[in-house]
Specification:
Blueprint (H helix, E strand, L loop, with lengths): L11 H4 L8 H8 L19 H14 L4 E2 L12 H13 L6 E5 L4 E5 L5 H11 L3 H15 L4 E2 L12 H11 L8 E5 L5 E5 L5 H17 L2
Antiparallel strand pairs: 1-3, 2-3, 4-6, 5-6
Helix pairs in contact: 3-4
Protein name: YdhW family putative oxidoreductase system protein
InterPro entries: YdhW-like
C-alpha cells in the first residue's frame, strides 16, 4: 500500500515568492522596514511611498506571476524582520485603502498573501497545496471544485499544467494512495471511450453523469459540432 506521505513532493518554485526574486529597489525598503508611523492630517498633493505600499506592490508583482508570498519570507534573510514589526506592518498595510486587493489564505504551514487583481481565491488555494507538498489534497480539491462549480469531471492531464506541473509518475502514485485513504473516498476515476482518464467526486456527481460529460468533452462534441 502506498502511503499518502510517500507522494508528497516539493514544487515551491512554481507558486511561492523567493527572496532572490524581489525587485532590488524594494528589497532596500523591505530590509529597513519599521512599524508604520502616524500620518499627518495635513492634506498632501501626492501620497508618499511607504513601507506598507512597497510591501503591497511586492505581493502584487508575485501574484501577476502566479506566485504567493509566504508570511515567513519576511522573517528570513535578506529581510529578517522582527515578528512584532512584521505584524504591525501587515496590519498597517491592510488598513490602507490602496491595499484593499491584498488578501491572504491560511495554509497548514504558513499564511500566504496574494492580490485579487490578478489571482482568484481558488487559484491561491491550489498554489498553497502545491507549496505545502500535498499532492493528494491538491488533486481532490481540484476535482471537487470542478464537480461542484461547473459541474464537470476533471481531466487528469490538467494536473500536468499550471499551477501543479505534476509529473505523470507523481500523479499515478498520488491516485494509488488516494484509493485507500478515507479522506479521498469520494474521488473516482472515469474514462471516455477514447481512454482519456477523468476524475470526479461522488459528493457532487454520479458515475453516469461523469461518464456522459467526459464522453461529450472528448468525443461527442467533435462528432456533432
Amino acid at each position: 500500500m502506498t502511503n499518502v506521505s510517500d507522494v508528497l513532493v516539493a514544487d515551491e518554485e512554481a507558486c511561492i515568492a523567493l527572496p532572490d526574486e524581489v525587485d532590488s529597489q524594494k528589497r532596500q525598503w523591505l530590509q529597513a522596514l519599521h512599524p508604520a508611523v502616524e500620518h499627518s492630517n495635513t492634506p498632501q498633493v501626492e501620497e508618499p511611498v511607504t513601507a506598507e505600499s512597497i510591501m503591497a506592490d511586492f505581493i502584487r508583482q508575485h501574484s501577476t506571476s502566479g506566485q504567493l508570498v509566504a508570511r515567513g519570507v519576511f522573517l528570513q534573510p535578506p529581510y529578517s524582520m522582527p515578528e512584532t514589526d512584521l505584524t504591525l506592518l501587515l496590519d498597517a498595510m491592510h488598513e490602507q485603502a490602496g491595499s484593499a486587493d491584498i488578501t491572504c489564505v491560511q495554509g497548514a504551514e504558513d499564511v500566504y498573501f496574494y492580490s485579487t487583481q490578478t489571482m482568484t481565491a481558488n487559484y491561491a488555494d491550489m498554489c498553497v497545496q502545491v507549496v505545502e507538498n500535498d499532492i493528494c489534497r491538491a488533486i481532490a480539491e481540484a476535482v471537487r471544485f470542478d464537480c461542484r462549480t461547473y459541474p464537470r469531471p476533471y481531466k487528469v492531464a490538467m494536473l500536468g499544467q499550471s499551477p501543479y506541473h505534476f509529473a505523470p509518475q507523481q500523479i499515478a502514485a498520488a491516485l494509488t494512495a488516494m484509493e485507500t485513504h478515507p479522506d479521498y473516498a469520494d474521488i473516482r476515476v472515469v474514462e471516455a471511450s477514447n481512454a482519456e482518464p477523468y476524475l470526479f467526486s461522488e459528493r457532487f456527481m454520479r458515475y453516469g453523469k461523469a461518464y456522459g460529460l467526459c464522453e461529450w468533452l472528448e468525443v461527442e462534441q467533435y462528432q456533432n459540432p
